[in-house]
Amino acid sequence: MNFEIRNVRPEEIDEFRSVAATSLTLSPDVLKGIQPEWTLCGFENERLISSYAAWPLNMRFNGEKVPVAGVTHVGTLPVYRRRGYLRSITSKHFEELYERGEQPIAILVASMAAIYQRYGYGVVSFQNSYKVEPRYLDFIDDVKPRGTFRELGDDEFEALVSIYREFRAERTGYLHRSKAAWDFGILSSIPKKNQVSRIIYEENGKPLGYFIFSVPLRGPIPKQNLTIRDIAWLTPSAYRAIWSFFANMDVIENIVWKQAPVDDPLPHMILEPRMLNIATRDGILGRIVDVKQALSMRRYNTAGKLVFDIHDDFCPWNNGRWKLETSGEETSVSLTGESAEASMSVNTLSLLSFGQISATEAFRMGRMDMSKNASHGKYDSIFRTEYKPFCPDIF
């Protein structure tokens, strides 16, 4: 049986979309934009049977811009599954990423995290969802919004971009959005028959936040759900004002926000946080493909030196003892012969570097070994991120 891994050709892109749609049980209409050179697919006896692609993305990594591979459209036709094809394609993709040296991290949104954790990915973020009746958005204090709201004009797209750029600046996991990413993501008309609203919050004429939401147009239904698509805020007063706006949506039965950061402040601001009906699930998965490059490109808030062993069964070039030295401004990462303070899998390293868990937590979970003289606090401090990792985009 002949199995080949390669990019699809331009004339095969429709077949690629068909295989991905069938494998993922999605409509081909939502699988647009992938270029042939971004694909890496499996062919059995010259038939395309496994789809795989990666968006060339940029992500904030504790405030630094880092190029990442946004893995997407991954699927194998049902009758060809359980033959190790995805493993082979993933291995080849990581080899190509390492050889090119352009994207030291791969990220994805998984249908099942178990599939990808076998390949060294870690669940590097979680996300909350809220479903709350507007009447329960009653705040602990009685502070009134100081600013004003207005609908965003069709010619004011750059106002959204400006707020989002400042909002994401110090965060981890947030993507740099192209115009196409906005149009096919947060601002898309999918699902159809939804009215999308874009609202800006201003104080003294200065934009300090925005929120985008949609409401289905279903005729004369007295109450229905409002779905939040995106929120960005630059000050605490802007965030408070946004939720005060939602509290006054009298004809809405429920406010639904399916992708809220786990460190979102709302549960600590309202009188009845249980009425948010918070549910938590995994967010993005991250995979450090190139330890040296990935850790060198990250920002660190504290100066120091770490020496640790990495175990990586999937990317052998990551195996070894690594020394990370940072001044907080400049960082070097190299293989070393010095005594190791800690030992961990590449999966655990992904969680630490994204700020998903601390080294102390990793040690208590049994995910990280540390020598008797090693300082948990030093690892905690160096790997700490300004915010918990989160990505509001689906890619």
Overview in brief:
The chain has helices spanning 13-24, 85-100, 113-117, 157-168, 179-184, 236-247, 291-297, 346-354, 359-364, 376-383; strands at residues 3-6, 41-44, 47-61, 64-76, 105-109, 122-123, 126-132, 148-151, 194-203, 206-216, 224-233, 252-261, 279-282, 284-288, 304-311, 320-326, 331-335, 342-345, 368-370. It is an alpha+beta fold and 395 residues long. Strand 11 (224-233), helix 6 and strand 12 (252-261) form a beta-alpha-beta unit.
Structural notes for this entry:
The chain has 10 helices and 19 strands. The chain is of the alpha+beta class and 395 residues long. The protein has 3 domains: 101 residues, 3-Layer(aba) Sandwich (Aminopeptidase); 155 residues, Gcn5-related N-acetyltransferase (GNAT) (Aminopeptidase, 3-Layer(aba) Sandwich); 94 residues, Nonspecific Lipid-transfer Protein, Chain A (2-Layer Sandwich). Strands 1-2-3-4-5-14-6 form a 7-stranded mixed β-sheet, with helices on both faces. The longest helix is centred in the first third of the chain and has 16 residues.
